[in-house]
Amino acid sequence: MIHNKTIYTLLCFMALVNRFCLAGVLQNPGNVSCIFHYQLPQSPNTLICNWTPSKETNLDADYTCIRKPDAGVQDERKLTNYSCIFHDVPLLSSYCICLKAANSFGTSKCTHFHSAEILKPDPPQLNELEPVPGMKQMLRVSWTGPQKLPRSTKYVADRQYEIRYTATTKNHSSTMFVPGNQTSINLTNLVHCTNYTVAVRCNLKESKFWSEWSNVKTGTTEEPDPLKVDLWRVIELHPSSGNRTVHLLWKENEEFQCLGKMNNYEIRYSTENNTYFEHTKGNTFTLHLTEEAYVISVAAFNVIGESPVATVKIPSVSEEHMDHQRIVTLNASALNEQIILEWEPSDLDINGYVIEWYNDLEPNSYKRSWQKITNVTKWTFPKGAFIPFKRYKISVYPLLNGEIKVPSSTRTYFREGIPLEGPSVEPAENIDKNRATIKWKEIPEAKRNGIIISYTVFYKSEDGKELGETVNANVLHYQLKSLQANTKYEVHVMASTVAGGKNGSVVVFVTTKLGAVDIILISILLGLFMLCLLIVGILGAVKRHKLKRILWPPIPHPSITATTTQKLPVWKNSPMDETHNISLEAYPYSEKCDKLQLPNHENFITQKIVPDNVCGREYEVIIGLPTISSVEHDSKSPDLRALNESSNDYENIEDQSHLNKVFNPYFKNSVSKREFLMCENSAENTHGPKLQSVPLTFCLPNSTASPYVPLDKFAQFREHTELQDT
């Protein structure tokens, strides 16, 4: 372990010493460069040398630059900022340059130079740049050579010049070389009516240094004859009338245009039979044409002459309808700040295409750009042709024998962003206990900033977490499900592009307590209940007497099988002014009878019942009450109370007039106090002799009739009752 540490320490020490030694050694002076500047005779020549070290040194040392001529005295200069200057250097001389450090490490090797090889002349002087009369694409350039050079023939012959000229409409520059014995030249094959900038520089053939560029001058080529315009058209069809509006667009066909020089344009449009002429100074024109076929041409005019005509054919309406699609697929994709367009044609005879593009939301829909291309099915739009976040419509028109055919179109964004605003949500509809329908409006095209790929519906209850449902971009409504009844919800919709999403307005709604199904069921049940009530009411109205006997049967009085009615005269002391019908019923009487006590019959009429032995049997005669359903109600009737009072009066009179007569105590009981006896063998009595009607005179006051009722009277009484029932 100790041995390893010793070796490591020794290696570090040796590396440090080596670094110190290497830093002290002077670097290779091959990095020294010198430039010789020739001056006028009254000014000294100057030699400037520069040293560029390959790496920094860690030692503080003073460097000295030494010039050693082939003949003469050695000259030394202190190196400042890796540079040194020597004055009064002869023009034609050779010397070497070396560096020396002010320490014990010595002097570097020497680098040899010759003044002619490192001579850098001063720049020439550019004098004129002007067009050549009669030459449309030419400029003449003249200049003066460098002033600070020897006037000897040798130095003049060894000169050469470089001319640099650049069109202001393009960034590329062109150069040409001129021998040193020339001071002017004509620049040819230039573009008509275009501005150019020109500069000149000079050097000697033996020298490796060029002078600086001269001053810059700008000149313009002469105006040429007008060039053929690039013509395009936009057709607007009016189906109702069959007529068409054609918008003509044109631009200069050359890359370098002479703008603003055209005086006017002539538009010629003709059918098979007629030709028409129009003139304009702009670069657009609108024609109103019929459904016939037209040939339209445009020519440009300036002070020089007329341009060749540009022609476009407008097919007839019938030809347009018969035409078919010749492009199968069309795709546009954005890549590296450009849009690449690819398509696939179906017709091999297509010899060219026209690419048209424009802002789909541009108010002026006829402001368009286009480019004609040939023999390609993939094209890259030039940079700067599109604006980010704007939707463009791109169309490809195939050219078949020079005629424009049906295009194929697509819409795309050069660059997409987040929408400027979210969807506008409408009030919730079809609100139910557990459901609600949410509808929203599309974002205006100008505020989408991209293609909407989806919508997300977010909803949240008062105390719950937010939930979301995503739908496609072509869906503008969504039904929320599984909601809580009688709960407040907040809803908003987010529209999303590839760049992100934007939330829209918020809508609040409250779900109902009952759902539509619940309301329907309740309505059905209520309807059925009301229908039942209606049916019962109708049946009650139609069958009220029968229903009354079924639902509320009359409480039977102790009565006989045959009933009859007789009118009873009103007693003197009776307050009643009308007579009453009294029913008499006779039942066979037996000793073995069950007792039936009627409750609360104190107001019943007091009656005299006389037993008699008819055919060996005993009968009882009962004066019946008016036939109604309730005995208690009958006892409270005012007519019966009056009749009862009359009966009581009769009994008093009877008692006073017949004090000496003795009656059976059973017949003295009033109807309200009498215990009615039901015969056990009543079934046997029903087979006895027929009953006969009996006069009711024994019930009247002062009646002298016998209190016994013959059997034939009951029979008459029964027949009379049956006749009345029928």
From TrEMBL:
| One Pfam family matching this protein | fn3
* TM helices/strands, residue ranges: 519-542
Q: How does it sit in the membrane?
A: Single-pass type I membrane protein
Q: Which residues form the Fibronectin type-III domain?
A: 120-224, 419-515
Residues in the signal sequence: 1-23
PROSITE patterns xrefs? FN3, HEMATOPO_REC_L_F2
- Protein name in the entry: Interleukin-31 receptor subunit alpha
Q: Which organism is it from?
A: Pogona vitticeps (central bearded dragon)
Q: Which gene encodes it?
A: IL31RA
